[in-house]
Amino acid sequence: MPSSTITTITHFTRTQIADEEEKHLSSECKEVLLSLPKERGWRTAFLYKFQGYWCQAKEIQAIMAFQKHFKAKDTDIILASIPKSGTTWMKALSFAIINRKNFPIISDHHGHPHPLLTSNPHDLVPFLEYKLYANNQIPELSQIADEPRVFATHIPFASLNLLPSMNNIKIVYICRNPFDTFISSWHFLNKLRSQGLPEISLEEAFKMYCDGVIGFGPFWEHMLGYWNESLKRPNNVLFLKYDDMKQDIVSNLKKLASFLGFPFSPEEEKQGVIQDIAKLCSFEEMKKLDVNKNGKSIKDIENKYLFRKGEVGDWVNYLSPSMVKQLSLIMEEKLDASGLSFKVAS
Ligand code: A3P
User: Fold this and answer.
1) Which pLDDT score, from 0 to 100, does residue 183 have?
2) Which of 79, 124, 184, 190 to mutate to test the pocket of ligand 1 (most atoms within 8 A of CB)?
3) Which is nearest to 218 in space by CA: 327, 144, 126?
4) Which residues are catalytic?
5) Whose CA is nearest to atom 23 of ligand 1?
6) 239 C-alpha vs ligand 1 centroid, how far in Å?
7) CATH code for the domain in which residue 299 is found
8) 116, part of any domain
9) Which residue, of 35, 44, 127, 238, is most buried by count of CB atoms within 10 Å of its CB?
């Protein structure tokens, strides 16, 4: 078969799958999609460039609903990230820190297990775009009496529309080195490819990543949006790195807890509460829980796919020297001037 025929068939299949994926979108969203640049997607047939970032159609619908209806509260906490940067881990750590009076880390007086032993972190801290505002829902968030309300998101900083009245809102951004984020995304998204879409090879995926075409990419823009804000408003935005947290969890947890407004007391430090939280939320402990081996806490995603290797530097097993060079150059070009750097690329 000539290659042009193969391309046509693949495109045809993609279009059919996209029709299926986009069938239930609102007519307003469908209308918006028509005006947006479109590229081949990773998980879904297509990604669309919306407000400067590559998103799936359903994500765009959710962002539009969020932008129209979300009313921030002064005490809100938002955990932000680009996918595959340690979002699940950050949700677990923040939940454990914020709720430790109600849910002691070890076990409460009545022997109740900690919620993180029986629930996946995505059930405890909901995503704005995959849960609360998904499928054109408008959640009644004003009815949440508990403070702080804690949400998570992959929405880029500018699209959160929180400026200029951020007041005391706190955002924690977890950022991972782009080498590992790419490898983690490639494994993850190939597992989730919509039915009928063939796997994306490492080479193809790498090219898309370097072109910025990945969910919520370009990755450098996503990182810089939050990075620059963390420099301008350190009381509002805390920028943490996955890689640093893996290396020194204790000092990063102290930083996180103080920023969130739940600092550890000297007494707690003496009792080893920080180490207990680190252990409860560690990759090894979380991966082996039944709740994280079974079920789906985010629509269509098996919880077990959220826990792969949990290491820093796995990329050395996949990337060729020329790929390493190419990605290092991109990082240099896009990030160096901002002061955002990663230890991995030499
Ligand atoms: P790998 O694919 O490199 O293993 P996200 O939660 O943003 O989807 O990120 C997923 C990545 O974080 C995966 O990386 C996953 O294994 C890792 N991860 C999940 N839980 C973790 C934990 N408790 N500690 C450290 N890493 C974790």
Assistant:
1) 98
2) 184
3) 327
4) 154
5) 283
6) 17
7) 3.40.50.300
8) yes
9) 44
Q: Is 266 among the domain residues?
A: yes
pTM of the model as a whole: 0.95
Residue 89 dihedral angles phi and psi, to the nearest 5°:
-65, -45
User: What CA–CA distance (Å, rounded) separates 231 from 146?
Assistant: 29
3-state secondary structure of 211: coil
Q: How far is the CA of 309 from the centre of ligand 1 (A)?
A: 7
Best of 124, 177, 182, 306 to mutate for ligand 1, by most ligand atoms within 8 A of CB?
306
For residues 336 and 329, give the distance between their C-alpha atoms in angstroms, rounded to a whole number.
10
**42 domain-assigned:** no
Count of Cβ atoms closer than 10 Å to residue 29 Cβ: 20
Provide the domain count of the chain: 1
Q: Mean pLDDT in each 10-residue stretch from start to end of the chain (346 residues)?
A: 54 75 90 95 94 97 97 95 98 98 84 93 96 95 93 98 85 98 95 81 97 98 98 97 98 98 98 97 97 88 93 97 98 97 74
Give dist(CA 25, CA 342) in Å, integer. Answer: 39
Q: Which amino acid is located at 268 in the chain?
A: E
Q: Is residue 118 part of a domain?
A: yes
* The token pair that represents 166 in the structure block: 């951020």
> What confidence score (pLDDT) does residue 9 get?
55
The residue among 70, 25, 33 whose CA lies nearest residue 50 is: 33
